[in-house]
Amino acid sequence: MTIEVRPASAFEDVRTLVGPKSPGANVCWCLSYRIPSKLNNELRGPARGEYVAELCRTGPPPGVLAYDGDEPVGWAAVAPRSDTSFARSRTIPHVDDLPVWSLWCIRVRPGHRKKGISHALIAGAVEFARAHGAPVIEAYPIDSGGAKIDVTMAYAGIRKNFERAGFTHAADTTSVLAGHPRVLMRLDLR
Questions:
Q1: Sign of dihedral through CA atoms 151, 153, 155, 161?
Q2: How many domains would you assign to the chain?
Q3: If both were cysteines, with which of 8, 35, 66, 173 could 74 make a disulfide (CB 3.0 to 4.6 Å apart)?
């Protein structure tokens, strides 16, 4: 199996990874950290997908997708932190004033897990941010201390996977996900 990671500009493939099963649902689309909470609450049903379709058409795309051949099997959300709610977070600190990019969601489709796709997505997100001039990329994964994490809550990633990709611990946070602390991990791209 050869995994290729590409910019998420193909809306139908993004829909496959982060769109809800019902087009009228008011969930996911990986928007909760990307847009202000007021807008997130206002976007209902199909309007959520339409918003993401517009993100896919404009540059840069809203993240990266992993493909096994032509099949989309993974998603990673990555964007300038200034364009996300992390820019205003009270629980995740800013280490410095660099215009960092944030990597906050990794999703691998059922049936494709445990094949290294999340590692490919992290590497692809790093390259995507670097290609768009990011001096640093941050992630906010769960530090579970090796404890098992529910797969639905593992979207933030796990610390050891970011360490394997060369990220280093930059700060603790007061953010908690699935009962586990999240840490701020960074990778300098300069």
A1: negative
A2: 1
A3: 66
The answer to whether 143 touches 180, Cβ cutoff 8 Å, is yes
% of the chain with per-residue pLDDT over 90: 86
Q: Which domain holds residue 11?
A: 3-188
Which residues make Cβ contacts (< 8 Å) with residue 82, sequence separation at least 6? 99
Q: Which residues of 143-156 are buried (b: 16+ CB within 10 A; e: fewer)?
A: bbeeeebeeeebbb
- Start-to-end CA span in the chain (Å): 32
CA 66 to chain CA centroid, Å, is: 12
Amino acid found at 174: T
Of the candidates 108, 167, 110, 113, the residue with the CA atom closest to the CA atom of residue 141: 167
- Looking up residue 80, the CATH number of its domain turns out to be 3.40.630.30
Model pLDDT, residue 148: 87
115-173 pLDDT, tens digit per residue, is: 999 999 999 999 999 999 999 999 999 999 888 888 888 899 999 999 999 999 999 99
CA 26, distance to chain mean position in Å, is 19
Contacts made by residues 32-41, CB under 8 angstroms, sequence distance 24+: 32/85, 33/77, 33/84, 33/85, 33/86, 33/102, 33/104, 33/105, 34/62, 34/77, 34/79, 34/83, 34/84, 34/85, 35/85, 36/85, 37/85
